[in-house]
Amino acid sequence: MHNTPGAPEVRAWVRMPSGKRLDLLNPTPFDWDDADLALGLARTYRWGGHSAWPLPLSVAQHSIAVMLLRRAVSPRPSPVQELRELLHDAEEGLLGFDAVSVIKPFLGEGFRALTRRLEQAVFLRYGLPAWTEKEHRLHKQADRLAAASEAVHVTGWTREEVLRTLKIRARVLERDPLADHYGCTPWEPWAPGLAAERFLLELERLKREEGHGS
98 and 153 in contact (C-beta within 8 Å)? Predict the structure, then answer.
C-alpha cells in the first residue's frame, strides 16, 4: 500500500523492542524477531482487557491454550500445524490490538486488509501452509472451546450468557489445559513477562521440531 500522490504522508511505523521497525501498511517477514512477537502478544489482551482476575488474559496465553486444545483433537497435528495454531493470532501481537468480535464489522475493509497483510507476513516468516478446510475446522473447534471457557472462567459470563448473549456454541471446559501442562492456577491470567517467556519457548520448540531456521 502506497500513499496517494499529493495526499498527506501516512505514518504507520512501529518500533519493536529489538530495535527493528515494522511498517504496518507494508509489512515484511523481517520486521520483527521472535521475542518481539512474544512480548507483543503477551501485552495484547483478549475480551477488551476485561477480567474477573487481577490481570487480563493475554493473546499469548490464549494462543498456547488453543495449541494444546488442538493437540487433543484427532488427528494430532504435525509440528508445522501446531506452529500454525500457536501463531493463529500473531498479527494481533504485531498490531498490539485484539478487536472484540462485535466491533470488527465497524472497522471496515481497510482494517481487514491491514490484518491480512500482517497475517501473510507471519505465514511467510514461519513457513506456514495455508489452512485446508478440514484443518481450519479443527482449529475453530479448539478456538471456540478456548473462547467459551475463557468467557466463563476468566471474564465471568455465565454458561447461559455464553450461549445466548455471546453466541458461542461450544462447551465450557472445567479443566484448564494450561494448568495440566504448566501446573499453574487454573484459568488465572499470567503476567506479561511470564506469558511472553512461555510463548517464546513454545515457538522455539516448534521451530526446532519443524526444522525451521531463525
Answer: no
- Residue 208 in this model has a pLDDT that exceeds 60: yes
- pLDDT tens digits, one per residue of 79-90: 999 999 999 999
SS3 content of the chain, % helix, strand, coil (to 5): 55, 5, 40
- Pairwise CA distance, residues 74 & 91, whole Å: 27
Mean pLDDT over residues 48-59, rounded?
98
Residue type, 78: S
Give every CB contact of residue 208 below 8 A, 6+ residues apart in sequence: none
Q: How much of the chain exceeds pLDDT 70, in percent?
A: 95
Secondary structure class of 142 (helix, strand, coil)? helix
CA distance 78 to 5: 47
Enter the C-alpha cell of residue 118: 500482517
The answer to whether 35 and 199 are in contact (CB under 8 A) is no
Which residue has cell 468480535? 101
CA distance 174 to 204: 29
CB crowding 111-138: b at 16 or more within 10 Å, else e: beebbebbbebbbebbebeebeeebeeb
Q: What are the grid coordinates assigned to 153, written together?
A: 472462567
**What pLDDT, on a 0 to 100 scale, did the predictor assign at position 214?**
46
